[in-house]
Amino acid sequence: MLLEVKNLNAGYGYLQILRDVSLNIDQGEYVCIVGPNGAGKSTTMKTVAGLISPMGGSIVFNGEDITGLPASQVAKKGISFVSEEMNLFVNMTVQENLYMGAYIIKDKQRKNQRLDFVFELFPRLAERKGQLAGTMSGGERKMLAIGRGMMSDPKLLLVDEPSFGLAPQLTANVFESLDVLIKNGVTILLVEQNVTKTLAVTKRGYVLENGKIGLAGESRDLADDAYVKKVFLGV
Ligand SMILES: Nc1ncnc2c1ncn2[C@@H]1O[C@H](COP(=O)(O)OP(=O)(O)OP(=O)(O)O)[C@@H](O)[C@H]1O
Ligand SMILES: [Mg+2]
């Protein structure tokens, strides 16, 4: 197992959101978390990424207990988090933003290899490398956020709602980019509002509701599940 989350409890201050969340991800797997707004999907990712310190439970990554490690340490272990907010440096160029994503890599040559890889993945970013991030379109900013998340050569990429606010064509581009990453051996945990599409591309999924994992299984079985259909797919 690459990631083993066991009985995770987490929240904000005294407010507990996650209740005994357990999930596993194997090396190279494409896994999703689906669930309604406010279910705790982003909270789960933030906790795994070390942005929130858990109240209980454990997070083991690559055989190592990383429970409670701060985000900078978690990043060094090989987990990269592309948040909903993206947190781009709007007054910096595309290329400068990408280099920020590789801050844990000290070797200049390796940094540049990563930059080449990301530019290959997103030619649009290469074309616009000198443009200020704040002036990029919504879709381009998503690409930049994902590209920046890839700069550190992560073992696990946590992607929170990459298609949020994007037109269908750009959404398709984002999903294609994630496919390329999967083919390159990257392990991905994806959170998405577009449940139909998400269950179609991922291998396994977890359904999170009110901070608890209700259902889990192969994505194609979840897509066929009567409850999932009723609640998430509106059929
Ligand atoms: N910083 C915070 N302080 C207090 N409560 C928070 C904070 N961030 C999130 N919450 C609360 O935690 C709960 C879970 O939020 P979370 O962002 O994890 O949901 P989500 O499943 O990602 O939802 P969405 O699909 O809307 O993104 C919500 O009730 C939310 O209001
Ligand atoms: Mg969220």
Pick out its properties:
39% helix, alpha/beta, Rossmann fold, 235 residues, binds adenosine-5'-triphosphate, 26% strand, binds magnesium ion, four-stranded antiparallel β-sheet, 2 domains, six-stranded mixed β-sheet, 10 helices
Task: Give the radius of gyration.
Answer: 17 Å
Count of runs of 4 or more consecutive helical residues: 10
Order of helices and strands: EEEHEEHEHHHHEHEHEEHH
- Overall structural class, as computed from helix and strand content, comes to alpha/beta
Parts with pLDDT < 50 across at least 5 consecutive residues: none
Q: Main beta sheet: strand number and arrangement?
A: 6 strands, mixed
For this structure, what is the CATH class of the largest domain?
Answer: Alpha Beta
User: How helical, in percent, are the residues?
Assistant: 25-40%
The distinct ligands, each listed once, are: adenosine-5'-triphosphate, magnesium ion
* Fourth-tier CATH superfamily name of the largest domain: P-loop containing nucleotide triphosphate hydrolases
- Numbering strands along the chain, what is their spatial order in the largest sheet? 6-7-8-3-9-10
Strand content: 25-35%
- Using DSSP, what is the number of strands? 10
The CATH architecture of the largest domain can be named as: 3-Layer(aba) Sandwich
Mean pLDDT value: 94
Number of domains: 2
